[in-house]
Amino acid sequence: MKQLIVSADDLGLTPGVNRGILRAFQEGIVTTASLLVTGKAFEEAVALARQNPELDVGLHLTLVEERAVLGHEVLPTLVDETGRFPRTSGEFFRRALFGRIGWDEVEREIAAQIERFQKTGLRLSHVNSHQHLHMFPPVFQIVSRLTRGMDNVWVRNPAGPWRKSPGVRMRRWVQRLGLNLSCLSARGLHGPPLPQMPDGMYGFEISGRLTRSALEQILRKIPDGLHELICHPGEDDADTRTRYSHWDYQWAEELEALTAPETREVLKEQRIALTSFVLASKNLVPNELHRG
What we know:
Elements: E1 2-11, H1 15-26, E2 32-35, H2 42-51, E3 56-61, H3 89-97, H4 103-118, E4 126-129, H5 137-147, E5 154-155, H6 170-190, E6 200-202, H7 212-219, E7 225-231, H8 238-243, H9 251-259, H10 261-270, E8 272-275, H11 277-281
Parallel strand pairs: 1-2, 1-7, 1-8, 2-3, 3-4, 4-5, 6-7
Helix pairs in contact: 1-9, 4-5, 5-6, 7-10
């Protein structure tokens, strides 16, 4: 059986992203969203999630680019004087490699982000991270430790296909290989029992550029098992476009692909059942998730 969790990241980033994710859930195939508790539109996102209780919500941890929950006085090796994380994952890795990051600080910040999520009263169904840093082995150990004992909390498994697909940029494919190796390393070093994780993830190679044709190609390749498809729907508003232009994400184009009637036809044709982390925990696979 093919089961697919369609997961929209960056809920809480900006109002335009919030609106796009909500529409992709209500009118499209999105089944879950990952909340960025450090985002500027965090409070609005929480309100929208409360108004749509069928939307499965998890935590989108961040250790790069955004502002930390805790301040510089608590995280002197992790953030700058303004409380911001390293700008990129590459900078984070370099500092970690040279022993310039205190892992006790990383654990405090992750715990603080989990606590901020829990204070919303929303059910925490899953945990993932910005730029997939939760699969960097030392971070994976921390995330696993902090989520152990929580009720049915899943952790994203970003491992995906090793073969390069047509149209995928070489640089992005190399990054995919690196991420796959990081997943193998993190899981191997961790040892049993591992956190509850899906079988794998799709969408990394075209993150931020999930066109209708690219989405259809992915759906035709989904194998049996429980897999996650990541996406980034949103509105092409000035705020989102200005603050995150360096990502070069096509937010509105992804929203169109996720809500297109043709996309549902492909799901039916491929016999893919949409599900969520909450429903997967209960071993329930509905033919059609409720839409508000």
